[in-house]
Amino acid sequence: MNCEKFRSSQHAECDKRLKVVCKQKGKRYILENSSREEICKVKIDKGYISLERKKLCDYLVVICAKNIVIFVELKGEDYSQACVQIFETIE
Q1: Bridge partners of 70?
Q2: pLDDT of 79
């Protein structure tokens, strides 16, 4: 996936850091980037995408050269709601 559209966004961090950390309200997701691929971490909900009427996932983590997108929703235990938010982001 071409990360060019994310690089200029104020809601994205794109680099080759060793660990990518997504955190919100005491929850966190850590992606180890041992191969030092270029990765863009994009804040989605009320960030890159701002839709008042829909709940969206918290972050996208994009591994640019490998066409891999990881949808990150930081929830405690409400997995069904997390899935809904990921599906709404995809739509």
Answers
A1: 61
A2: 87
Tell me the C-alpha distance between 22 and 38, whole Å.
16
Q: Which of 23, 2, 11 is nearest to 72 (CA)?
A: 23
Give percent above pLDDT 70 in the chain: 99
pLDDT, average across residues 10-16: 95
DSSP single-letter state for residue 67: T
Centre a 10 Å sphere on the Cβ of residue 6 and count the other Cβ atoms it contains: 19
What is the side-by-side order of every strand in the sheet holding 59-63?
12-15, 39-43, 59-63, 68-72
The helices-and-strands tally (H runs, E runs) of the chain is 2, 6
Structure tokens at 89: 């982001």
* CA–CA dist 90, 30 (Å, integer): 22
